[in-house]
Structure formats: C-alpha cells, structure tokens
Amino acid sequence: MHKFGDVILGGIFEMNFFTAFSELYFTSEPNDPICHGFDILGFRQAMTMAFAVDEINRNSKLLPNISLGYSLYDSCSKLGISSRAALSMTSGRGEPFQLNESCYGYPPVLAIVGDSSSTRTIAISSIVSLYRLPMVSYFATCSCLSDRRQFPSFFRTIPSDAFQVRAMLQILRRFGWTWIGLLISDDDYGRHAARSFQSDLAQSGGGCLAYLEVLPQGNDEEELQRIVGIMKKSTSRVVIVFAHESNMLNLMEEVVKQNVTGLQWMASEAWSAAKVLHTPSYMPFLAGTLGIAIRRGEVPGLRDFLLTIRPDNETLGSQDSTLVKQFWENVFQCKFTSSHGELLDGSTSERICTGNEVLRNIETEFLDLSNLRPEYNVYKAVYALAHALQDMLKCVPGRGPFKGQGCANLKIIAPWQLLYYLERVNFTTTFGDQVSFDENGDALPIYDVMNWMWHPDGSTEVKNMGEVKELASKVDHLILDAEKIFWNFESKKPPWSVCSESCPPGTRMARKKGEPVCCFDCIPCSEGKASNETDSTECFNCPEDYWSNPKHDHCIPKSMEFLSYVEPLGISLTTASLSGALLCTVVIGVFTYHRTTPVVRANNSELSFLILLSLKLCFLCSLLFIGQPRLWTSSSFGLLLALFGPKCFIILLKPEKNTKKALMGRGTPRS
Predict the structure, then answer these.
(1) Cα 267 to Cα 270: distance, rounded to the nearest angstrom
(2) Cβ atoms of residues 71 and 12 within 8 Å
(3) Span 144-173, pLDDT tens digits
C-alpha cells in the first residue's frame, strides 16, 4: 500500500501468515498475491499507521504545510520477504507508485515502522543500520536489539525483554514461587529471553528452574509429548512460556491429550492477549493465567477511520487493493470475481463479494478497539517520527547540530539527520503516556499485568490486574490487585511452587547433591549450636555460658546444678565436714590447755597448731561446695587454697623431718 507525501515513511506488517510459493520474490501480478492466511489484526496494525499519518496531515500544529506519506509492505511472516521489503525501501528500488496525477516514481523512504518479529527485525535492522535509516519497531522485544553497536539506528515503542523478565521475577517474588518451569520458542525471541531470565534469576537468588525446554517450530508430536511429559512429572506448579500463539496452540493440544492440570501458567506479551486460546477445550487448563501485556492505550478516531475502508475508495491513497480485498473477503466470507467474471481463487461455490457490504453491521474483531496494545505502539512510533521531523524543521541556521552549525534541508534530507532528532524526541500522547527513548533506543518500560478469568457461564475475560514499571530510581515497581485475581484451583488461592520447604529456625540447609540450589534438606543444629533465621545455611555456636534450647533456635544461659543442704548427700557431707572441724577444734583446745607439757612441746606446738587449723579449714572448705555458688564462695576458696595449701602440702609430705628439727631445737625432754 502506498500514499504519496512530502516525506515517506515505510512500514512492514504481518498481514498474512503463509506464502503460496517462493517467498524470495514479490509477485508481478497485482491480483495474484503470494501470501495467504490473512491476519486481520496485522492488517489493523497497518491501518493504524495509515490513520496516524492521515491524522498528522490534518493537524495544523504538527508538521504544518508538510504532508506525510507511507509505503506499507506485508512480511507474510517470512524473513526473506521482510528483508526484501526493507531492501526495496532503503535502496529506492521498490514498487513504483503514483506521485501525482501524471507521474509514477520511487520516492525515498526516510524511516521504517516495523517489524513485529524479533528475528525479522534483527535481520532488517542490520540492513537499514548500514544506511543509518531510523527503524522503530512496535513489537520486537529481543534484548539483543538494545546493542547500540550492532543496531545504531534501531528504536522501539515496546519495552525490551530484559524488562519483561524483571517484571516476571517481580510477580514470582510476590507469590513466593521459587521452583519454575520455563518453555521458550526456538527463535531469537525465546533464546534471548531464556538467557536473560536465567541470568537475572541467578543474580536475584529468587528461585531455580525445574526444567528449560525449547518448543518446536512445527507440530512435532513426539517432541511435544516429551516436553509435556516432563511438565507432568515435575513438582513445579508454575510454568512460564516465552513463545508465540502458534507454539502455544501446538503445545495445548498435547496438554489436553495428557490432561496436565494443576499448573499456573505465566504468559509473555507474545500470547498474553491471544483470543485464539480462549476455547472451551483449553480454558480448563489455561484459566487463571497471569500474563505480561503491552501497555493498553486509546486512539481516538481510529474506529471511524477503519469504517471508511472499502475496496473501491481511495481512503488509503493510491495503492494496489489486493490487501483490502483480502480483508474484505475475510470479514464477509465472500470472494471477489476477476475481470472475466470468475472467482479469484478458482472456486465455484463461494459467495460473491459486491464491495457494497456494510462493515458497521458485522461483528468482527477488527472493530473491537477496547484492547489496543500493538496498535497503540504503532501509533506512538509514527508520532515519534513526526515529532522528530518537527524538531528538525524547527532548527535555526547557525545554531544547528550538524557541520558548521547547519540544519537539515527538507528537499535533501538524509536519514541520519532524522536519527539525530529521534534520539532526543520527547512528547506526551493524548492518552497521557510519555514517549521518549533511552541511550539504547528503548522506550520507557511499563507493562500491564493480565489475568485470564473464566466465568461460570463459560465466557472468558482478560482483565487488567495491575502494572509493573521502572521508576526514576531504576527500581522496578509492581502494583498488583492480588485479591481480585482468578485462581484456577479448588482452594481459589495461589499455588505453592517450591522444590523444598523453607528450613525453620533451629535447622540449616544442606544442598542435595546434583540438584539445583533450591532443592535441599533441613538438618537440625547440633548440641551447643543454634540458628534463629529461616533458611539459614549455618548454625552458630552459643557463647561459653550459654546452651542451645531444645528447639535450637536460640541460646539460653546454662542452668546451675549444685548440691543442696537438704539433699541426703548434702546432709551427709555437711555432717562430716562439721564433725571434722569440731574434732579439730577440740584437739586445738586440748593442745592449748596442755601447751606447756613436754608432749606438746616435743611435737612442735606452733607447727601442730598450724596443721590443726589447716585441717579445720579444709573440713570447712567443703561447705563452700554445698548450696548455690556465689562469687564470694569461689573467692574464699581460692584465697584459702593460696594461703594454706602450699604449707599443708609441704608439711604433709615431710612431717618426720620437721618433727625431728623441732625436737633438736628443744633439747631432751624431761621424764
């Protein structure tokens, strides 16, 4: 589709799913399309770009006296066709179209809006980056596209998968899910998402992967059986899927066959709003799905514009009407005839399209604008290019950013000049969303959190339950109305998905050999050790005067066990101690009374008194060990031991020698 203007913007959209033959060349016959399997939503996205261009042209404040045009191509969901479209637009060798009433030509394309697939966008951006041609994608989320060295002219109005992964982790953390299964598509989108998810999950320490499986691109039944078998045997109750609608359709067929229930599904933005999955056979399994969705927006006036589309008018400018006719046949389930009166597809039983059918009278998804998400991103992409062009035309010569402080000239404008202003664009949409790009060409990150609600009457509703966005402090912030979420479980509560239950205080974690870090055993702390935290990796030693309590979750002072005076053993020892002390006292008294007698004097009375006093104190010392210990009792015992211990020890070891010395000093006793 083409529409002439002073400045031409290119667009690549997926308006058909399949190709009838070679995907490497465009058809030369306008009524013989190579693409089939019409995608009505992809066509609506292309029409949103056409509407945005038309709206800008009618806006007297934005790009006054300058008209925008477009050149829209169908990628047919094929890399080869998408790349050829990009080459056609960048090289000026594309399809010629009418520039005015008497002239056909190849107008230069100043920027491209597209593509919807990360894989195709990577290939296209690699091409257009050589020309420094700005490319703004509305649906390619691969984090690899943020590499400015490889893709210096790439921008997008949808957040990167790096942020989508962080948004997923926020939800997992909110519900305490640490044991997760991950399924990805076999393309750049899935592989880069898996790499980011594994990296961020490891850094956050918030969980482990029970399994990681790659979904086949086609309907490989044997591989799908193997994958679903792993899901069925796994103890993980949460499954995250970074894949496309086609992958999910094939997967769900096998899930239904094996009757794998009791799973909490989490959807990436690629299929979180896919109505094709809202079928009675799938919803018993997919009900309650939590999904990350592109920010919903509103585009005033879009519905009225869509209603003006007809196969026989010039609303969309000068163009080959093949795509419009495909759209018309898809909506009204009829077929157009050729100039010879034959149906275009050669059939004979189809109802014939007249072109006079009334679009307003039919109920179609095409006109349901209550959930505009990719279309809103297309709308923002076109306006971002328009605002960049507006800023460029406001340039004052002598103050410009280019060589010699010059400005760009509209007649000889170069794509790299528009690229300079696109990097600095900043505006607010009529819906109230700010549009700008960071140093990597990424839009301000924000996602809606969706929930698939399954009502008793069998109807399905995808409802917004919150949002996750990046704050100015670079912190991800999750707002979630958890009380209103529909859970597809008997308990009507969120499931519990962990490999091992948390280790309570009093235990420590011991990893299971050969398994992820989330799988562990809880080992009780040994005697004298404790742990006072959940999921503690080590037990700590209690202080010297403390002991672990029976639960080993904290340390308590050691209990004092002592010999009481009222116990039989205490009574016996007290009696013996006092008796010994009394006996020593009696002997001391006898020795004192007879201290002048020869017998006493011959036994060295001073030494005898010292020994008797020491023996008495030794008997009394035993009383210090009876009853509750006190500081003064310990001090008293130590003091007595220090004073009398050494002397008594010496005397007791050498009693005969000391006695002999005493007798020699005293002389011969009397008779």
Answers:
(1) 8
(2) no
(3) 999 999 999 999 999 999 999 999 999 999
Neighbours of 326 (CB within 10 A): 24
List the one residue out of 327, 332, 325 whose CA is nearest residue 31.
325
Q: Encoding tokens for residue 652?
A: 């007791």
Q: What dihedral do alpha carbons 541, 544, 549, 550 form, nearest 10°?
A: 80
Q: Read off the tokens for 348.
A: 């004979």
Q: What's the rounded Cα separation, in Å, for the pair 243 and 186?
A: 8
Pairing of strands 2-3, 68-74: antiparallel
CA distance 327 to 40: 7
- List, for residues 228-272, the tens digit of each pLDDT value: 999 999 999 999 999 999 899 999 999 999 999 999 999 999 999
Q: Cα separation of 201 and 548, whole Å?
A: 36
Query: Do the beta carbons of residue 118 and residue 140 sit within 8 Å?
Result: yes
Closest CA to 200 of 469, 476, 473: 476
How is 611-654 classified by DSSP, letter by letter? HHHHHHHHHHHGGGGBSS--HHHHHHHHHHHHHHHHHHHHHHHS
Contact between 76 and 57 under an 8 Å Cβ cutoff? The reply is no
Spatial separation of the C-alpha atoms in residues 486 and 19, rounded to whole Å: 40
Model confidence pTM above 0.85? no
Summarised one tens digit per residue, pLDDT across range 89-132 is 887 665 665 555 556 666 678 999 989 889 999 999 998 998 89
Q: Are 470 and 445 in contact (CB under 8 A)?
A: yes
- The answer to whether 353 and 35 have CB atoms below 8 angstroms apart is no
The type of residue at 147 is: D
Residues contacting 222, CB < 8 A, separation 6+: none
Residue given tokens 């009398």 in the structure block? 644
Do the Cβ atoms of 34 and 22 come closer than 8 Å? yes
Q: How far is CA 512 from CA 80, 183, 238, 521, in A?
A: 49, 25, 22, 7
Q: Which residues pair with 112 in a beta bridge?
A: 10, 135
Tokens 């083409």, residue located:
2
Name the residue type at position 516: P
